[in-house]
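Dear support,

I submitted the protein below through the web form. The confirmation email said the job was done, but the results page showed an empty box. After a refresh the structure appeared. I'm attaching both so you can tell me whether what I see now is the final result or a partial one.
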Amino acid sequence: MKYCPNCQTQYTDDSLRFCLEDGTSLLSSSGKNSQMPTQTFDETETVVRRNQAPSGWEQSQVTRVAALQPKVKKSNLPLIVILTALTLFVFFGGAAGVWLLLIGGSSEVKVLPNNNTGTNNTYKSPSPTPTSIVNSGTGWEPINNQASLNGTRLTYYRGTTAKQCQADCDKNLKCKAFTLIRAGAYNPSDPPMCCLISKVTGSATSSCCISAIKSESDRYSANSVYATEILKACGYFLSSGLYDKWEQTGGEDGNLGCPIINETEAESSPQGTTGRMTQFRKGDGGYIIRHGSGRFSGTAFEVSGCMFKLYASIGGTGSWLGFPIKDEYPTSTGARQDFEGGYILWDSKTYNCQAFENY
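What the results page shows now:
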């Protein structure tokens, strides 16, 4: 019997010379301290050795190591969170943009009704509002505490005071005018509403509202609450209502000639009528007066010549005659003009004018 001095494997085949495990020369088991003599063989024996299956311990050890070292996958949670946040931002940002466009975009609308008898169910809750304010400074016409404006709406939102509406309009270069609807103007539960307007196309006297127009250019003068558009007549500002009437008289070359003042507020009549006016100096001089309230609201009349001189001498619109309600018209003895409280007759023979009260 032989054995391997390194791995101690024993072999019963005495013809083997070398260890089949590590190739070490085998020794005889009869004397482990002595080495077997080396023998030379003519033929070399080839031994084919099959791979041995791993022992149970080795198998379990391999399995254990594999189980303890799984392949680690990177977590996609941070990427998912980032993509979700970006999606939400884009969605809500787009929705907010659409909402702002819907409420802030300008469109041709009637901002307010021309009277205070209509209803408006847009508003939700009441809020106290002052009835008047003081003009904030230059660049604005005098604020009218009894006027509504129509036109191209720039934006429309729940307001607080007319002063705040005016300040908001001051900050917006596109804003040319504002109207504050008083709380409860149409329904008891209505809050105050502020309308910023980019173009004024109409107006009316109404207790519902407080309004004013910027006077930053030739199109918006400091005396144009009732304006549909502000125009220049010989360098003076007139709203389209007065300007159109002036054009009908012949304009600069007509019987009135050029105005000598900008359009201004007319003195209220004893009958309660308010309006706007301007004055001319050609010939005996004259007025163009436009009603801002009452049954002739929006209509302009001319008072000129002898009738103007008499009318102006007794106080004009603030006198007992009040506002004119007709232009001068011919009679068999000369001409006549009717007013709220009476009339003036012109005698073509004497060229004198005389005023009479209505009875």
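Response: this is the final, complete result; the empty box was a page-load delay. Residues 165 and 171 are 10 Å apart (CA to CA).
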